[in-house]
Amino acid sequence: MSSENWAVSPLPFLPGQELCQQYYQQAVLPILQRGFPGLPHTAALVGYGSDVLGYDTPLSRDHMWGPRLVLFLPEDASESLRARLIAALGRELPTQFYGYPTHFSDPDGEGVRIPTPIESGPVDPLIALTTLSAFTQQELGITPQQALTPADWLTFAEQRLLGVTAGRVYHDDLGLEALRSRLAYYPDPVWRYLLACQWMRLSQEEPFVGRTHSAGDELGSRLITARLCQDVMRLAFLLERRYAPYSKWFGTAFQRLDLAAQLSPYLQGALEAPDFPRREAQLCGAYETLARAHNDLGLTPALEPSCSLFHQRPFRVLHAERFAAALQETLRDPWLRALPLYGGLNQYCTTTDILESPAAWRRLQGLYGG
Predict the structure, then answer these.
(1) What is residue 347's predicted lDDT score, i.e. its pLDDT?
(2) What secondary structure does DSSP assign to 216-273, as a single string?
(3) How many angstroms separate the CA atoms of 54 and 166, rounded?
(4) For the chain, how big is the Rg over CA atoms in Å?
(5) What is the C-alpha separation between 197 and 35, in angstroms, rounded?
(6) 345, 343, 342, 337: which is closest to 361 by C-alpha?
(7) Mean pLDDT of 131-157
(8) CA–CA separation, 184 vs 164, rounded Å?
(9) Alpha-carbon span 48 to 133, nearest angstrom
(10) How far is the C-alpha of 195 from the C-alpha of 242, rounded, in Å?
(11) Which of 45, 175, 195, 303 has the fewest Cβ atoms surrounding its Cβ within 10 A?
(12) How many CB atoms lie within 10 A of CB 27?
């Protein structure tokens, strides 16, 4: 079978997290035990990939998918050890595992590798050899033990935090699970600040759906509606203390939130509504659902969850700035409390080249005076 046909392979589909666990236990671990007895290591499926997030499908199998691992070695692992380990894996791994090639093509210009059947070894597997320090530097631009400031947290890309904390750890001698626990979600003060910022984002465009309609700009009204729907969804992630993935998986991940069952009909209705009155009604239903969810958390005194007119204009809004102000009042960190409601990186940036660059994140800390 040619490599480009793996996306439509007749092989039974096994989610990557399961496939890679079996690969580690049945194929990789025995090689380590035979040739490197007692070697401390960590084996995991973390970092990039739909399989890490648990969203992979048969279509995922065409590239960077299959039997694979991130294999962490001790910080003092020598180049000689790495070379011997790479040679042993290439020599002793089977060429197939559960029917899938363990050999992958050389990376293309973007680092993409394709599963490639071969008749005999050596195998060039999709096994990344790294250390905990190198991995955290690559993924987040930090060291494993680094004390994190609020400015650090505000400039992490959520998709990278999710890649580190999602997936599975199959064996851990070196402390990956402890790191994942520390990064599991934003610290409470940062979370409250991000919630305040997201409510403020909502408030800033609430009335524009009606105002653009009244000016005869139906396209503009629909465009702002779509943007507000995305803001509603991001607020739902924050309310449930869940990192949001990047755009390809944003909707998929949203559907797994507890609030999705209540919000989805409103969001779908707002996006499909043929006119402003129905658009407004659906958006208000979504806003009020979020307002009740906020009140249920007890982070602030309960706020009126119903929509009302925007000043004297005939547009119904939640006045979401009320929720932002109430959350700001709960901030005990003076630095966060004094900070303008800029939000975190994902609240004001969608540029991939920035979201994928820890070096760019560090430069953005200047926005916060950091």
Answers:
(1) 96
(2) T-HHHHHHHHHHHHHHHHHHHHHHTT-----HHHHHHHHTTSTTHHHHHHHHHHHHH-
(3) 8
(4) 24
(5) 53
(6) 345
(7) 97
(8) 9
(9) 17
(10) 12
(11) 175
(12) 19
Pairing of strands 42-45, 68-72: antiparallel
pLDDT per residue as tens digits for the range 21-44: 999 999 999 999 999 999 999 999
The C-alpha atoms of residue 250 and residue 229 are separated, in whole angstroms, by: 12
CB distance 259 to 235 below 8 Å: no
Its sign, for the CA torsion 348, 350, 354, 358, is positive
pLDDT in tens, 247-272: 999 999 999 999 999 999 999 999 99
HEC string for 85-148:
HHHHHHHHCCCEECCEECCECCCCCCCCCCECCCCCCCCCCEEEEECHHHHHHHHHCCCCCCCC
Q: Are 326 and 305 in contact (CB under 8 A)?
A: no
Confidence of residue 2 (pLDDT cuts 50, 70, 90): very low
Distance CA 205, CA 12 (A): 47
Q: Rounded to an integer, what distance in angstroms lies between the CA atom of residue 186 and that of residue 194?
A: 9
Q: What angle do CA 151, 157, 158 make, to 5 degrees?
A: 110
